Known about the structure:
Helix 1 (about 45-65) crosses helix 2 (about 70-75) and helix 1 (about 45-65) packs across helix 3. The chain has helices at about 45-65, 70-75, 90-105, and strands spanning about 1-5, 15, 25-30, 35. Helix content is about 30%, strand content about 15%.
Amino acid sequence: MYRIDRANADETTTSRCCKNFDCRGMMKTLNDDLLSSSEHNHAPDPAKNEAAKVVSAIRKRAVKRVEKPRQALQQTRAGISMEAPPHFPAYVASQRAIERQRKRNQLPYPNPQNVAEITIPEPLKTTTIGVNFVFWDAV
């Protein structure tokens, strides 16, 4: 896992290893294409990488679906290895991350003044399993 270290003048990006400060692992990219990389001085931690991928999937799911945070966490964490759960953040931290993602990416819903102005947003027209919730719109 890498973190962005700097954006260079030639439009490339230099990233450093996130593991520890003693690691000299770096990579240089241009538009998501790897240009160069250097070796790490530590072994990889697949469980931690798997946990990071699950956390990323939870954040993406929070924006795309309208469901309770506990449901999103349980369904996203299904089928993972036994080594990954110790690397997950606490439930409250995950819940707050989901709420922040939704708040950041959600446009405020309009406040209609009459029935003709009511519009139902697309995410609210289906259930969490993708079945139509609204069968008929009278407007």
